[in-house]
Design brief:
Elements (H helix, E strand, L loop, with lengths): L7 E5 L4 H12 L3 E6 L2 H13 L4 E5 L5 H15 L4 E4 L14 H26 L4 E5 L13 H21 L5 E7 L4 H9 L1 H9 L9 H13 L10 E4 L8
Parallel strand pairs: 1-2, 1-4, 2-3, 4-5, 5-6, 6-7
Length: 251
Amino acid sequence: MNRLTGKTALVTGGGQGVGQGIALALCAEGARVAVAGRTLAPLEATCAQIRARGGEALAVVCDVTQAQAIEQCVAQVLEAFGTIDILVNNAQIVPLGRLLEVSDEAFAQGMDSGPLATLRLMRACQPYLRGGGVVVNLASSAAVRWDACGYGAYAAAKEAIRCLSRAAACEWGPDGIRVNVIAPHALSPGLEGWMQAHPQEAEAFLQGIPLRRVGDCESDIGRTVAWLASDEAGYLTGATLPLDGGQAFWG
């Protein structure tokens, strides 16, 4: 524990689900955590949980599809905590649907909130990450599904994030910055609601996971991110970790 004491983390999409789980896990390791998202109330709820555990937290309203909002977000975190040591790009608008159905607008939102926002945030934080900073970006096993029907637009956005992450790891490694990617299955509110509404489909989904369960947002996903951000993972960069109970085969 306390492997991240003295560090400051910025987590986008931190108001619920995976982002919240990551924020709580980083807090448990001693990091100060800024959570960013479009709506204040859920961000404040996450911050309240962090403070209840004795941690320091900051809620920052930020629409990651807007370049100016990203710059303002980073400035707010720096004003509050002085630096940014860990960046977690979790926020994503999900463009699902078959290729003939996905609108240009939905596809653009997926790209703007995913790879473009990821690139902008990495660039904005890069000067402060030098000398030991860590970036963790989120991808998806949608890119390696046996049946990609309905997932092409989403997978394209997430694979673009993986490409940008690999480039950042190579380009910024000499500056002491590590960049890795996780591809999680997690029991977010959205997935939990779907499983409750479609029990038969949910059972089939679980049977396709070798560990026969969906990951917990904090204990399974968040703790892995905390480890990635720690010195214990100090020689790992440019990698994608599938946190999906063994479901996807990345090859």
